[in-house]
Amino acid sequence: MADAAELSARLVAELTEAGDLTPDWRPVFEAVPRHRFVPDTVWVQDGGRLVPVDRVDDEAAWRVLVPWTTDFHNGALVSFVVAENGDMRGRIVGNVAFMRLRDQRGKRASIAHDVHDLAGARRSFTRTHPYGVLGEYDASLAIGLKVPRCKLIVQHDDNGSYTVWLIDPWSDSWAGLDYEPVRRSSRSANRASGTCGRE
Fold it and tell me: FRET partner for 195 with CA separation of 20 to 30 A, picked from 33, 42, 61, 162?
């Protein structure tokens, strides 16, 4: 792995060659302690102030925290440790909500456009309440990993019943679960079409 001085020299050379670093600014640019900005050092917040943490001094603090999302599940915080060769390994360490940029949002799904062939849909029944699967964090996260482009739409009726739609506009697949609160002990009807999520 290149050391900080080598990386700094490479950066100066590339910026100069590209014309982004003019000769009059080069001495100032080279005077900045670049070693504080290469991957072996990260800046962490400590009581409202930012302090540098060198990897060799504190391996646990030297991590990359990344918000992770799919079209279905919004809100996991993943912690990665970067190996000497640049490989990253990590795990989910918490729940975080954030707003995605427009180009990160995927395709828009709509019942009118993406739910089709209701008469030809496969039908089944379940006694599982929708909240136990869709409203529980771990279950929602697992669904998001399995079908990352699936969108959730809930369509309410006046009598308290509702339909939970799971739509993948990329694969033309959808599923709908009709839930009626007055029939809590009985089964809810499921309808599905397409190939999304099938093994």
Answer: 162
CA distance linking residue 29 with residue 196, whole number of Å:
52
Q: CA-CA distance, 177 to 131, in Å (whole number)? A: 12
pLDDT exceeds 50 at position 1: no
Q: Please count the other Cβ atoms lying within 10 Å of the Cβ belonging to residue 142.
A: 13
Q: Is the pLDDT of residue 199 over 50?
A: no
Alpha helices in 19-173 (DSSP H): 26-31, 111-114, 130-134, 137-146
Helix (H) or strand (E) holding 83: none
The structural domains of the chain, with segments of one domain joined by +, span 1-34, 42-106, 108-193
CA atoms within a 13 Å half-sphere pointing along the CA-CB vector of 28: 5
Nearest to 36 by CA among 48, 22, 25, 52: 52
| Residue 36 token pair | 């504080």
Q: 58-95 pLDDT, tens per residue?
A: 665 556 667 778 888 877 878 777 776 667 788 887 77
Residue from 12, 145, 130 nearest 73 by CA: 145
